[in-house]
Design brief:
- The protein is of the alpha+beta class.
- The chain folds into five domains: 3-215, Hypothetical protein af1432 (Orthogonal Bundle); 219-371, Beta Polymerase, domain 2; 413-489, Roll (Ubiquitin-like (UB roll)); 505-648, no CATH class; 656-730, 2-Layer Sandwich (Alpha-Beta Plaits).
- Helices cover 49% and strands 15% of the residues.
- A five-stranded mixed beta sheet has the order 1-2-5-4-3.
- β13 and β14 form a beta hairpin.
- α4 (74-85) packs across α10 (158-172), α5 packs across α8 (118-127) and α20 (399-408) packs antiparallel against α23.
- The chain is globular, with a radius of gyration of 29 Å.
- It starts with a helix and ends with a strand.
């Protein structure tokens, strides 16, 4: 839109002649619910200014409707209502009402800046999408939107609060969308938005987003679990009432004041536990939860003693998040008890202020603004994380790489370890000494050569556990190893390793790109060497590259599709497009085990030689290989343009990771016996993890290195013969 029509539209929208009233009409049904929330915590002038912004937004969106047929203004008002429920400040509520005005109406950023000030304009701009920029794919557009949103969030975290509220209302009204679109939005919500809400401590938003995302993503599974939950809810209520009465009676005996709340496990939490731990609904559902809220930290620890006196604690399941808060600032005591009839009973004990922060997270800053300067643990930790995003943003080569890095850092089940000087370092679950080294300093990570865990030398791939002391040994002139990417967890570590390796694996990407292009050209019965150099250069320029090697590198990294480049080359020869198609060519890529960094094997399914496999061309990563029966591979099949047929060579070499799990009796020397059985087959153990299902049975997960499927089958057969093994399966 040119400047003159824009100015004209602005004058029409803001002119008194346009007939826009300064306040909502009496009894306005759309604004009234929001107004009732606002008057509970804002003064009259602030509420009036918000009402004026509502009137402007309503006129700006006049005539626009949602897919459901409702007036469009109902959406920004609902978003503002969600934020008002979190007791957000006046400017955030105004920005929420205007968050779609720039994108969907003639109103420009300049008008918002002039009328509502720089703070509101910045918030609105941070939430607005990048629809005016052209992207090569929907995925790239999504990644660029995400990067812009995260960078705006670094400057003002309220941007993400508005975006989360916007996503929550969209999820509440998702039922009118097509099934495929519902699943896409639900997947994005579960993979990106709920982890962000968790990272910022916004548990009330996170829980609802998870429930709605689960229902839209897996409607049948949701219905089955909901029905199962409804059937047993009656018995459950009786047990929960018994537990609540027991706690209240003990509190009265001790003369202590506290609020006892019992709750049932959420559907999505039940589903995730069933998937992750390979257990049935009945095995998950026997976990009850109690929350005790009191008025002081001193009483919190006294209540812990009361709880342990009432029911016996389960060894090894106590966590003190008050002394060492979570990454998002969450504070509470957690313990697991043997409740009535021996059922596990989860207990959380916290103060009222901790409870408010647990529900509202960083949003509680505005609720408690009058009480201080807002520099509490929640805000400080959230802002530390946001500052890290800037470093990742500078290192990331493109928006999609940035998105992938940050997604990997959004699931912060923490582990707490110590430096040799006794300082506590907080890292995500399954972190390794490499992650620790980069958390200390980038230079320490880049020059790391070895490590000590509790004063003993240990592999750099060791999974860190709570309470360990880590010492990193460095040497000048050393450099990151490509193998580190297979076990580094944190976004900071992975980003810096990738940055170093980008130049290192450029030649490998060129070689893979040449192989992929040759395969694609076979469909057209021609070789690259047979194509005239001038025609090749025309195609190179059409793909916005300067040399053939650059184009081959882009193909090898997955940024260009070999089949489309082949079509471009043959079209330039004047062969026409009849008989060829811009899709997948049927000749598979043969894997020999020496492809280097630009062919990787998916960690979700760990394919090994002998498995039926399929490749997926991933931007910036080259070809990612999955097992055909992998759930992710089934989902990726919906994008056939990115699929690449691959096969194992008859002489494939090398060792490959495979993961097996087993149910084992808790017998003395059992683990040593199993490790010996695995070693006898010639396989290596990369990692072992444990999950105690009960006092008698433990789930043990082995991450192995094997040469092929035959060797893995031999390991499974031998383990099944062990007297302490009840069941073995490949994950």
């Amino acid at each position: 839109m040119s400047a003159e029509p824009l100015e004209s539209a602005m004058s029409e929208l803001s002119s008194p002649a346009a007939g826009i009233p300064s306040v909502p009409a009496a009894g306005d049904a759309i604004f009234a619910p929001l107004e009732r929330l606002l008057v509970e915590y804002l003064d009259a002038p602030s509420t009036e200014r918000i009402a004026q912004a509502y009137v402007f937004a309503a006129h700006a969106h006049e005539g626009q409707t949602r897919v459901s047929g409702e007036p469009y203004i109902t959406h920004p008002v609902a978003v503002a209502g969600i934020l008002a429920g979190l007791r957000m400040d006046e400017k955030t509520i105004i920005a929420a009402l205007l968050h779609d005005v720039i994108e969907d109406t003639p109103t420009g950023h300049e008008y918002i800046l002039a009328e509502y000030g720089a703070e509101v304009a910045h918030l609105v701009e941070g939430v607005s999408k990048l629809d005016q920029i052209r992207f090569k794919s929907k995925a790239e557009q999504q990644a660029a939107n995400f990067r812009k949103m995260m960078m705006a969030m670094v400057e003002d975290v309220r941007v993400i609060l508005i975006k989360l509220a916007d996503r929550l209302h969209n999820m509440r009204t998702l039922g009118v969308m097509r099934p495929d679109k519902r699943r896409r939005i639900a997947r994005e919500t579960l993979e990106i938005y709920t982890p962000i809400a968790n990272r910022l401590g916004l548990n009330s938003l996170r829980h609802e987003l998870e429930a709605l995302g689960f229902q839209a993503m897996y409607p049948m599974r949701y219905c089955v679990l909901e029905q199962a939950l409804r059937k047993v809810r009656g018995n459950r209520r009786e047990v929960m009432r018994t537990i609540e009465d027991a706690f209240n009676a003990r509190l009265e005996d001790e003369g202590m004041q506290a609020e006892v709340q019992t709750r049932e496990k959420r559907l999505y939490s039940i589903y995730r536990k069933m998937v992750q731990k390979h257990v049935s609904f009945e095995e998950v559902f026997d976990v009850f939860a109690v929350r005790i809220v009191t008025d002081s930290v001193d009483n919190v620890y006294r209540l812990l003693g009361l709880a342990h006196n009432l029911y016996k604690p389960l060894p090894g399941r106590f966590k003190d998040y008050i002394a060492i808060p979570k990454a998002n600032g969450y504070q509470s005591l957690h313990t697991v008890l043997f409740g009535p009839h021996g059922i596990p009973l989860e207990v959380q004990i916290r103060t009222r202020e901790m409870h408010q922060f647990a529900e509202s997270g960083i949003a509680a800053h505005w609720l408690y603004k009058a009480k201080g300067d807002g520099t509490g643990a929640t805000q400080a930790r959230a802002r530390d994380w946001l500052r890290e995003l800037l470093d990742i943003q500078r290192q990331a080569g493109n928006p999609q790489e940035f998105l992938e890095s940050v997604k990997g850092d959004l699931f912060p089940d923490e582990v707490y370890v110590f430096t040799p000087m006794g300082e506590i370092m907080e890292l995500p679950r399954r972190s390794t000494p490499i992650d620790f080294a980069y958390a200390v300093h980038t230079d320490v990570g880049n020059s790391c050569v070895a490590c000590k865990i509790d004063r003993q030398f240990a592999p750099l791939s060791s999974v860190l556990r709570n309470g360990q002391t880590i010492e990193i040994i460095t040497a000048p002139g050393t450099a990151p190893s490509p193998n580190w990417l297979s076990f580094a967890v944190t976004a900071k570590a992975r980003t810096h390793i990738r940055t170093f390796l980008k130049g290192l694996h450029a030649d490998e990407a060129v070689q893979l790109g040449a192989r992929l292009l040759d395969k694609a050209l076979e469909t057209h019965q021609i070789a690259l060497a047979d194509i005239d150099a001038e025609r090749v250069m025309h195609c190179v320029q059409d793909q916005y590259q300067t040399t053939l090697n650059e184009l081959l590198r882009e193909i090898g990294l997955g940024n260009r599709m070999a089949a489309l480049v082949a079509l471009c080359l043959t079209a330039k020869m004047g062969e026409g497009e009849k008989g060829s198609r811009p899709g997948l060519n049927n000749a598979p890529l043969i894997l020999r085990g020496s492809e280097g960094l630009v062919v990787s094997f998916a960690k979700c399914c760990h394919p090994i030689p002998g498995d039926p496999i399929i490749g997926f061309v991933s931007t910036g990563r080259g070809v990612v290989v999955h097992r055909r029966q992998c759930g992710n591979a089934v989902e990726l099949a919906s994008r056939p343009e990115n699929l690449m047929p691959v096969e194992w060579a008859s002489d494939v070499s090398g060792d490959y990771q495979a993961e097996i799990a087993l149910n084992a009796k808790n017998l003395r020397g059992g683990l040593a016996r199993m490790a010996g059985t695995i070693a006898e087959t010639g396989a290596d153990i990369d990692n072992v993890s444990f999950d105690d299902r009960d006092q008698n049975v433990t789930v043990i997960t082995f991450l192995l290195r094997v040469s092929n499927r035959l060797q893995l089958a031999q390991i499974i057969r031998r383990l099944k013969r062990d007297q302490g093994v009840l069941k073995v399966w490949r994950t």
